[in-house]
Amino acid sequence: MNTIGVIFDLDGVIVDTAKYHFLAWKKLADTLGFEFTESHNELLKGVSRVRSLEILLDIGKVHISDNEKQEYLISKNEDYLSYITKMGPEEILPGASNLLDNLDALRIDYVLGSASKNAPLILKQVGLYNRFKGIVDGNSVSKAKPDPEVFLIGAKKLGLKPQNCVVFEDAIAGVEAANAAKMISIGIGDAQTLNRAHYNFNDLTELPEGFFQELLTEKV
Ligand code: B16
Ligand code: MG
Fold this sequence. Notes:
Oligomer: single chain
Number of helices: 9
Distance between the termini: 12 Å
Order of helices and strands: EHHHHHEHEHEHEEH
CATH architecture of the largest domain: 3-Layer(aba) Sandwich
Bound molecules: 1,6-di-O-phosphono-beta-D-glucopyranose, magnesium ion
CATH topology of the largest domain: Rossmann fold
Number of domains: 2
Largest sheet: 6 strands, parallel
Structural class: alpha/beta
CATH class of the largest domain: Alpha Beta
Number of strands: 6
Strand content: 5-15%
Radius of gyration: 17 Å
CATH superfamily of the largest domain: HAD superfamily/HAD-like
């Protein structure tokens, strides 16, 4: 076992499923009769499904019963799944496969730490499911990011102390969760937005060669 391990967020790091969440949430907003834009969708990134619905209803200033909420959560997910089930390996984001190959070569283990309850299905669709040492997803946690729970469970699966775990995240709440877990946080996306991350890259192709070797020498 290596002295460091990696925890990957899914949406926005390995694949871009935000566009499918957007289409499914927009359909619900259309049904409820208000506009839901791509910038509204930014507010839902990294956030749990239930919390996403609450934010969406706030945007539309819509009040509905708990029963209706449950129905909309189910129908939104059915719409979302209609897109997800068409995904394939071509949707893996640039640099992700290469990074996993490099980690394998360095014998650095990696697990998934995602808010999505659909994470196992998505990984299977793109052909990456069997490569992860473990999966922590929206089904395994009781507290959503920015709570560190998802990543602390990930550290257990890696058999490592939190300070020896490196987290790749595209959402502010995810970077905060990694920092709260006392892990090394890497923000993927806009550096201004993710300015609390310890390292920032626009995407995974920007990770410098030797990045993990350097971290390894620091953590020996
Ligand atoms: P589901 P991540 C998150 O994935 C998405 O960013 C977020 O937009 C979504 O609401 C959440 O998963 C829950 O997804 O409805 O599939 O359970 O970024 O944590 O990998
Ligand atoms: Mg994400």
